[in-house]
């Protein structure tokens, strides 16, 4: 069997160790480098979204003639910039139904998550009095899980709630996990970035309010796509990001409730900007872009939803009607329909992505490090290691077209059929996975 054939079929990892796979990938991409260059069709909207042209138009003057520092209070350049920032803040607040003064700008959702979680623990935590318990889930974004691990090293106790096979938490387990007088914070993401599952935020907020526990959520994936209401959720803190809502990269924010007043210890110290909670010079063009993106999302959310849901149904049905043994990862109902995470039995996800080089995709079998471990989110919902390695995430958004989806269906079906014919994990005659495949181990 040739080296290229081994790559194309995603040869079983027991027979194809890491070093050989690395060499094979180089060989594969060297081969396709001779193909005429064409931008791949974008299907990775959970990773980032393109900046909406209207957002860019709004930002451009603040890179050129309106270049003032919004903290300069002695001349028109500063006043002009400050007015633009406050308009942006109001647009963001309107999208999540809070007051503008409750929106604090940061560099992105990772900084927001760190600032809120660590800042809450610094103000409300007391390790000596056992007021040091936090609750989160096993499927949070890496920046939340890493922050929790760091806090555990400092003496905080963290409960990582399990989820069911649909990716949803148990509200009963959440309530049982709260220790009155000791639990200070519940941090549960709104929409999961890998499988698109939406947690019941209003019910989670009700439980937190019942026990007087602070409630934080990372809403980066759902912002501008699903209605968010901080009062209906009883949310105390939210983390936001611009580049997931067709805004620029490098800007985010967090919401902090003012009534009753919530407090945090800042993560960054300096000039005391952003009500003393986030020091540093305001990147005015980015803030303006974030605000404009939220303004557009407020007015076009329903239109975007219908567009994306139509494409989701078309893509999902187009694939599953022609291919057997394709599994949807995550809940089919309580989900953000811009996210379609599928597992293709008998096909290794990374190899399928290499075959689909005309599309920009994310593999659920790839992770955030050099490790070849399968997705921790898929493992948390009970997906077996063999199937977890076969997953692909398709991200749909505002600028995805029906033509994009039609081409994707055709290429995916053809590629999966080809790879399955060559796979030792697939029986081409029976058109089904090899009996006993679940006992095989990926290495």
From TrEMBL:
Belongs to the class-V pyridoxal-phosphate-dependent aminotransferase family. NifS/IscS subfamily. Its EC number is 2.8.1.7. SUPFAM superfamilies: PLP-dependent transferases. Pfam families: Aminotran_5. Residues 41-407 form the Aminotransferase class V domain. One of its GO terms (molecular function) is metal ion binding. It is an enzyme of class 2 (transferase). InterPro entries: Aminotrans_V_dom, Cysteine_dSase, PyrdxlP-dep_Trfase, PyrdxlP-dep_Trfase_major, PyrdxlP-dep_Trfase_small. GO terms for cellular component: cytosol; mitochondrion. Keywords: Iron, Iron-sulfur, Metal-binding, Pyridoxal phosphate, Transferase. NCBIfam families: PRK14012.1. It comes from the Eukaryota. This is cysteine desulfurase. Gene3D superfamilies: Aspartate Aminotransferase, domain 1, Type I PLP-dependent aspartate aminotransferase-like (Major domain). Its cofactor is pyridoxal 5'-phosphate. GO terms for biological process: iron-sulfur cluster assembly.
């Amino acid at each position: 069997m040739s080296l290229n054939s081994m790559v194309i079929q995603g040869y079983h990892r027991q027979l194809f160790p890491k070093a050989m796979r690395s060499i094979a990938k180089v060989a594969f991409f060297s081969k396709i480098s001779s193909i005429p260059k064409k931008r791949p069709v974008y299907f990775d909207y959970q990773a980032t979204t393109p900046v909406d042209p209207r957002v860019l138009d709004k930002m451009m003057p603040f890179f050129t003639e309106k270049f003032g520092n919004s903290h300069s209070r002695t001349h028109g350049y500063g006043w002009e910039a400050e007015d633009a920032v406050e308009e942006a803040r109001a647009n963001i607040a309107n999208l999540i139904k809070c007051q503008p003064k409750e929106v604090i700008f940061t560099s992105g959702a990772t900084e927001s998550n760190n600032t809120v979680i660590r800042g809450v623990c610094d103000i409300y935590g007391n390790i000596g009095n056992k007021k040091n318990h936090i609750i989160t889930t096993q499927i949070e974004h890496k920046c939340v899980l890493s922050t929790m691990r760091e806090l555990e090293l400092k003496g905080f106790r963290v409960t990582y709630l399990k989820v069911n096979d649909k990716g949803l938490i148990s509200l009963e387990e959440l309530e049982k996990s709260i220790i009155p007088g000791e639990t200070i914070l519940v941090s549960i993401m709104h929409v999961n970035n890998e499988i698109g599952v939406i947690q019941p935020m209003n019910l989670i907020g009700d439980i937190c309010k019942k026990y007087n526990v602070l409630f934080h959520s990372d809403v980066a994936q759902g912002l501008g796509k699903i209605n968010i209401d901080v009062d209906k959720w009883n949310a105390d803190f939210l983390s936001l990001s611009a580049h997931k809502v067709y805004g620029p990269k490098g800007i985010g924010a967090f919401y902090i409730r003012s009534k009753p007043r919530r407090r945090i210890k800042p993560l960054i110290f300096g000039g005391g900007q952003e009500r003393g909670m986030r020091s540093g010079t305001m990147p005015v063009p980015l803030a303006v872009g974030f605000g404009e993106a939220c303004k557009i999302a407020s007015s076009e959310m329903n239109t975007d939803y219908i567009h994306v849901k139509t494409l989701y149904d078309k893509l999902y049905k187009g694939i599953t009607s022609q291919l057997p043994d394709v599994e949807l990862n995550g809940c089919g109902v309580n989900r953000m329909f811009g996210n379609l995470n599928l597992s293709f039995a008998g096909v290794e996800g990374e190899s399928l992505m290499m075959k689909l080089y005309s599309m920009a995709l994310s593999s659920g079998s790839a992770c955030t490090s050099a490790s070849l471990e399968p997705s921790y989110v898929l493992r948390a919902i009970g997906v077996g290691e063999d199937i977890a390695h076969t997953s692909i995430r398709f991200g749909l958004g505002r600028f995805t077209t029906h033509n994009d989806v039609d081409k994707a269906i055709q290429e995916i079906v053809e590629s999966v059929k080809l790879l399955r014919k060559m796979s030792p994990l697939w029986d081409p005659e029976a058109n089904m996975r090899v009996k006993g495949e679940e006992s095989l181990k990926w290495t």
